[in-house]
Amino acid sequence: RAFSSTPPQSSWLLPKKGSEKGGKSKKGRPRVHTGGSTRGTTVVWGDYGLRLKDHHRRLSALHLKNGEDTIKKVLRGMKFRLFMRVSANIPVYTKGNESRMGTGKGSMDFWACRVPVSRIIFELKGEIHEKIARQAFRLAGNKMPGTYEFVKKGDAPMMGLTKLTPDVVEKLRTQKAPFALKKYLPAPAIVEAEVQAMKI
């Protein structure tokens, strides 16, 4: 980079947060998709998937490893490929019991990941029967905290806890139609459109 005027970038292998330069990372909470995002809720690379069903969770690296080992144990001897859709890249710090206040955050204990609701955890691809994949994912879900469901490629995406099937999408479009005309209508017409929408 002798002839470059831009500063050299840091290594992409190092995390942006939690390093010594930026200080210790915060505990944080899983993201709540309030804008209608369906990212990470469908099977992309594999044929079957395991999706978080109930509430957002913070899964540790040990939880993910136990789930992965359980799936590989059930599918031992078969031709398959396992994809992990989440990564444990958040350091969790702990302090000893009955310690004085003001002594810092503590030392790093384990790695974890924040998983929002309806996020795909594992994906499975290979020459495997659906019943065997269901059994493997069921046992893996029992090893991890939370409630999980079995999904297949082509299933409808999720927006929070709502499954976006074609009839649900059409219903949402009809509900939002009166409010989409606000910028084109005068003030009395806006009030009338809202009243009609409430009647629907």
Approximate helicity band: 25-40%
The CATH topology assignment is Aldehyde Oxidoreductase, domain 3
Poorly predicted segments = 179-185
Total domain units? 1
User: What general outline do the C-alpha atoms trace?
Assistant: flat
> Could you name the CATH class?
Alpha Beta
Number of helices: 4
The number of strands is: 9
The CATH homologous superfamily = Ribosomal protein L16/L10
Structure, described:
It is a single chain. By secondary structure, the chain is an alpha+beta fold. It has one domain (48-94, 106-198): Ribosomal protein L16/L10 (Aldehyde Oxidoreductase, domain 3, Alpha-Beta Complex), CATH 3.90.1170. Helices cover 26% and strands 22% of the residues. It contains four helices and nine strands; from the N terminus they run ββαββββαβββαα. The chain has helices spanning 61-74, 130-143, 166-176, 187-199; strands at 48-52, 57-60, 80-84, 90-94, 107-115, 120-126, 148-152, 158-159, 162-163. The protein has a four-stranded antiparallel beta sheet with strand order 3-6-1-7, covered by helices on one side. A three-stranded antiparallel beta sheet has the order 2-5-4. Helix 1 (61-74) runs antiparallel to helix 2 (130-143). It is flat, with a radius of gyration of 23 Å. Mean pLDDT is 81; it is low at 179-185.
